[in-house]
Design goal:
The complex is a heterodimer of chains A (about 800) and B (about 200). With about 800 residues, chain A is α+β, with helices and mostly antiparallel strands. Chain A has 2 domains: about 1-35 and about 250-470 and about 655-800, Multidrug efflux transporter AcrB transmembrane fold (Up-down Bundle), CATH 1.20.1640.10; about 65-250 and about 540-595, no CATH class. Chain A is built from 31 helices and 13 strands. Chain B has helices spanning about 5-30, 35-45, 115-130, 135-140, 160-165; strands spanning about 50-60, 65-75, 80-85, 90-95, 100-105, 105-110, 140-145, 150-155, 165-175, 175-185, 190-195. Classes of the chains: A alpha+beta (about 800), B alpha+beta (about 200).
């Protein structure tokens, strides 16, 4: 702004420098944008910086075992065909490299685990202690094992009876069998509620690795497709089978697809509409090309800023970026039309050039509008959601770049504005007529705002949005997911005890300590049971204690002889038992690595989260409420009190609390943002009457939009709040322009037309967002699109000059 | 009257046919004797009952037969309890789809439909005691021999996979009372449970 009065040669040099800087910045931004990683995962919709308990939760949601689950349903056809298809699909998927586990009720993959359990039974069995290897203990244990013979379970025990007469393997199997298991038919899991075979897959790929998830999903689809084409397939029967896939990974992949196609749709439509509007305004290719320069600069700058700040750019940010097209083009419209409108006798390059006049007369108003917009978007940066923060940074960088381009580059490349008039005259005339007529409706607007206030007071509070409202997943998909989860007994929103420790051994020891307390609650019937990683992998201390309880060979032989006296299984046949106990005494404790390659590893990994430099090791104990009851949080909290690092996490209430906290925080930020806009306007206008005049239409528009949303029955959340703040921030631009025009000696129709065009581009780009199936975008669009339009209309009503048409206003010649 | 007219001949022939058919039907009934429908109807009349049992298991690996004894109880429609008192206390209780096994302080619960091999044994006894024909036919190929007074019910699992574990269950009884349940496992082991109804235990 300081170069306005510089000498002509200085200006030329300055101009060359400005253009060089602009081109360099463009090249740099382009370079960054081309190297940027574009993502579209769901974690952007989860809040960041939560409490420690919530950190556990979000870790789990983002990359925990739950995020790696794929639930598969086979529907259609008859039961025998479905169940056989499940067998074949399971077997085929186990051969692929994509899955850490494939569970469908088939016991084949557990054989390996069985060998591991048998080999480490004295370290694993919860029954092993010194008393068990006394005469009495041995007798009771052997009797118990024998009581299973002659039943169907006996067939499994007989092959190992002489090695494991005390039945440690049985005890371990008991401890590892969950109380809630799916129904089994023909050896595979089936639904209890619908004709459907079900499988549960755990991908090797992390939940956040959507490419990996996509590969895994494709592998399932391909394997399912191949089954029907294998030789000897009953084509008619199998054609009736359908594959249903669900789970976090499939949601993530589907959401990514949706976001991708949505970004394309928004970009294409947003771009096309702006081009059409610009054509209406200028009917000149050159003008069109020039007008798109700040837009392109802004978009590139936005992408580069987000990329540098976050390391990646979310697809949602690009989708939202289309509103930037609508906003950034405003600066071009203002300049190209208004600089031309102020065309006079001035010579280019002097202070009195068109560009110079625009910079003097209109730029301060545009700049003020820019700053209010920036304040609005700044609130997004601090909204606590990484996804929203990206939108904020993108918009701020984009608007700054677009405005800077307009301010410093346009006077050089288009000193006289843009050629071509298009339908601008008609638009201008329409606008003038409207501007003249609208003030008469002033009291109507006041009445409307009053009515909206009443509506808001009468209706119950619409602020009842939930975290799940932000999720771009269909309700139908969620229902299918819930049904499949119920089939396999995999509850999603449960209650768990989370533990943290410095290392694997510490986490397991803590899990054992909590487990001992929870056992009491199970006995009292408060809980039905719980899952613990220590069942699959006891802590080294526990393993050592168990192995130390084993007697030496001589002692054991003597006790065994006494214990089996007169029984059906004489000690003379149990030589292998004595030898294996002897060998086990020398075993070192095993750790997680020893489980690699068995289904036990998958089971442990679901409950034991590896730590690293940035986060501790975590053990998770999922609680199962007693049938027909919910987990009594107070009882559990009391039970685990005093165990360091242990905390109770109830997923659903925790997430709700998290969201509520962010909503409160967002309310503060929105209030601060609005206050900052008001303060800025007060400082700039330095006149209470003008300030009130500018604020009234904005306040009225906000209240009317809010009442409209409330009356439509929408559940409003953080993003609607953000949208309202943006309405204030963007809407103030129009109020400021009307305030500026009111004090200008003359108003030309072109300037009015530029205002209308700028408003239309903004309203249309946000209306596009409002039509998006992605809730985050829809919420912002639904608030800003009507808000911006009303701001223009109400500003015209309050600030327009009620003179007759063709009065004092002078049309530039 | 003159010669029998064609009408009367036809009528006599018809009567003869009907008579023959009735005789054939009667013969067929006596050959099949007593069937599953009749047996389950007869058993279903008893709504609850208590009994003592002794069980002998012959296991090929062991030198001796395993013996145990205890109490049985059932209640229509779907509760069955087997409480072993000797040699050690042990309790198995089934209601609907939920099976609870208790041994001293330990107890574990599982859903019957998630463990078909357990369901086969439970359903053979529970289904017979409560006269649940639908459930028996769903799981087994059932054949009945004998009469209402002395009957035997042979149950072979329909599922081939299960037949690899439980070859057959043979239930025999007198009138509405079950007297013996014999389980033959696929590996040749067998258990025989002899049941003595407790006086006054049965309620119609």
């Amino acid at each position: 702004m300081s170069d306005v009065g510089a000498s002509v040669p200085g200006r030329r040099r300055g101009g060359a420098v400005a253009i060089a800087i602009w081109l360099l910045a463009l090249a740099l931004a382009l370079g960054v944008a081309l190297r940027t990683r574009y993502v579209a995962d769901l974690s952007a919709f989860l809040p960041s910086a939560p409490t420690p308990g919530q950190a556990v939760l979000l870790d789990q949601l983002k990359s925990g075992s739950a995020s790696r689950l794929i639930l598969v349903g086979i529907e259609g056809g008859d039961a025998a065909t479905r169940n056989a298809a499940s067998q074949r699909l399971g077997a085929r998927l186990r051969e692929t490299p994509h899955f850490a586990s494939v569970d469908n009720g088939d016991s084949a993959p557990w054989q390996q685990a069985g060998r591991f359990v048998l080999g480490h039974r004295y370290a694993l069995s919860p029954a092993v202690d010194a008393a068990r290897f006394q005469v009495e203990g041995l007798r009771a244990a052997i009797d118990e094992t024998l009581s299973l013979l002659g039943t169907p379970a006996g067939a499994l025990i007989k092959p190992i009876l002489l090695r494991d007469p005390t039945g440690e393997t049985v005890r371990i199997a008991e401890a590892l069998t969950p109380a809630q298991a799916p129904k089994v038919e023909d050896g595979v899991w089936v639904s209890r509620s619908a004709p459907r075979a079900v499988l549960v897959l755990t991908t090797r790929a992390d939940g956040a690795d959507l490419d990996g998830q996509q590969q895994a999903l494709n592998a399932v689809r391909n394997a399912f497709g191949e089954q029907a084409q294998r030789p000897g397939a009953n084509v008619a029967a199998e054609a009736a089978l359908r594959l249903e896939l669900s789970g976090a990974g499939s949601f993530g992949v589907a959401a990514r697809e949706r976001i991708k196609s949505e970004v394309e749709r928004l970009a294409v439509w947003g771009g096309a509409i702006v081009v059409v509007l610009l054509w209406l305004a200028f009917a000149s290719l050159r003008a069109l090309a020039v007008a798109l320069l700040p837009v392109a600069t802004g978009v590139l700058a936005g992408i580069a800023a987000v990329s540098l700040g976050f390391g990646q750019v979310h697809g949602m940010t690009l989708g939202f970026g289309t509103t930037l097209i609508g906003e950034a083009v405003d600066y071009a419209i203002y300049y190209l039309i208004q600089a031309r409108a102020s065309a006079g006798a001035a010579t280019p390059g002097s202070d009195t050039s068109h560009a110079g006049r625009w910079l003097r007369e209109s730029w301060p108003t545009v700049r003020l509008g820019l700053v209010t917009s920036l304040i609005g978007f700044a609130a997004l940066v601090f909204a606590g959601f990484p996804g929203l923060a990206q939108l904020g940074v993108f918009s701020i960088a984009g608007l700054l770049a677009a405005a800077t381009t307009t301010r410093f580059v346009f006077p050089l490349i288009a000193p006289d504005g843009a050629p071509g008039a298009g339908l601008r005259q008609q638009l201008g005339r329409l606008m003038r007529r409207a501007a003249a007529a609208l003030p008469r409706l002033r009291w109507g607007v006041v009445a409307l705002a009053a009515a909206a206030t009443v509506v808001l007071l009468v209706l119950p509070s619409p602020w009842r949005g939930q975290l799940s409202d932000l999720s771009p997943i269909d309700a139908v998909d969620l229902e299918r997911d819930a049904a499949l989860r119920a089939d396999v007994g995999a509850p999603d929103a449960g209650t768990l005890v989370a533990l943290s420790a410095a290392d694997e051994a510490g986490a397991l020891a803590a899990a054992e300590a909590v487990g001992a307390r929870l056992d009491t609650l199970v006995k009292e019937g408060v809980l039905q049971g719980y899952a613990s990683p220590a069942r699959f992998l006891p802590s080294p201390a526990t393993q050592r204690a168990r192995l130390a309880a084993l007697p030496d060979a001589a002692t054991l032989s003597a006790r065994l002889a006494e214990a089996t006296e007169g029984g059906p299984l004489p000690a003379t046949r149990l030589g292998a038992f004595v030898d294996e106990v002897q060998a086990a005494r020398k075993d070192p404790p095993f750790d997680r690595r020893a489980l690699e390659g068995t289904p036990l590893a998958t089971a442990v990994d679901a409950l034991l989260l590896r730590g690293d430099a940035s986060r501790p090791w975590r053990a998770l104990l999922n609680l199962q409420a007693a049938p027909g009851r919910t987990v009594e949080a107070e009882r559990v909290r009391a039970a685990i009190a005093g165990i360091p690092g242990a905390q109770l996490v109830s997923i659903k209430p925790e997430l709700d609390a998290l969201y509520a906290r962010y909503l409160r925080q967002a309310e503060w930020q929105a209030a601060l943002g609005a206050a900052a806009v008001v303060a800025l306007l007060a400082l700039t206008l330095r006149n209470a009457r003008r300030l009130v005049g500018v604020l009234l239409p904005i306040a009225a528009a906000t209240v009317v939009v809010l009442a409209g949303l409330a009356a439509s029955g929408a559940a409003l959340g953080i993003l609607h709040l953000v949208g309202l703040l943006l309405t204030v921030a963007i809407g103030s631009n129009y109020a400021l322009f009307f305030d500026h025009l009111r004090r200008a000696p003359e108003v030309d129709e072109d300037t009015l037309a530029s205002l209308l065009l700028a408003n239309l581009t903004t309203v249309i780009s946000f209306a596009l967002l409002a039509s998006s199936p992605i809730p985050v975008l829809r919420a912002v669009g639904a608030a800003v699109a009507p808000g911006a339009l009303l701001c223009l209309v109400f500003s015209a009503s309050f600030l327009g000059r009620p003179e007759p048409v063709g009065g004092r206003g002078k049309i530039a010649a | 009257m003159g010669k029998p007219g064609p009408d009367r001949l036809a009528r006599r022939f018809a009567v003869l046919l009907v008579g023959l058919a009735a005789a054939a039907a009667a013969a067929a009934t006596s050959a099949a004797g007593f069937d599953l429908a009749q047996l389950t109807t007869q058993l279903a009349r008893i709504k609850s009952g208590e009994a003592t049992f002794t069980e002998k298991r012959r296991v090929e690996m062991l030198d001796r037969t395993l013996e145990s004894s205890g109490r049985l109880a059932f209640r229509a429609p779907d509760t069955f309890i087997r409480e072993t008192l000797k040699p050690r206390r042990e309790k198995l209780e089934v209601t609907g789809n939920v099976l609870t096994m208790s041994l001293g302080e330990r107890s574990r619960t599982l859903q019957l439909d998630s463990a078909p091999e357990a369901a086969v044994i439970v359903e053979a006894v529970r289904g017979t005691l409560t006269g649940n024909r639908e459930s028996l036919e769903r799981l087994f190929d059932a054949s009945v021999s004998g009469s209402a007074e002395r009957w035997a019910l042979e149950l072979v699992p329909r599922d081939l996979r299960l037949r690899g574990q439980v070859a057959s269950v043979r239930v025999s009884g007198r009138g509405p009372a079950v007297h013996e349940v014999q389980v033959l496992l696929a590996d040749g082991d067998r258990s025989t449970m002899t049941i003595e109804p407790l006086p006054g235990g049965a309620t119609p």
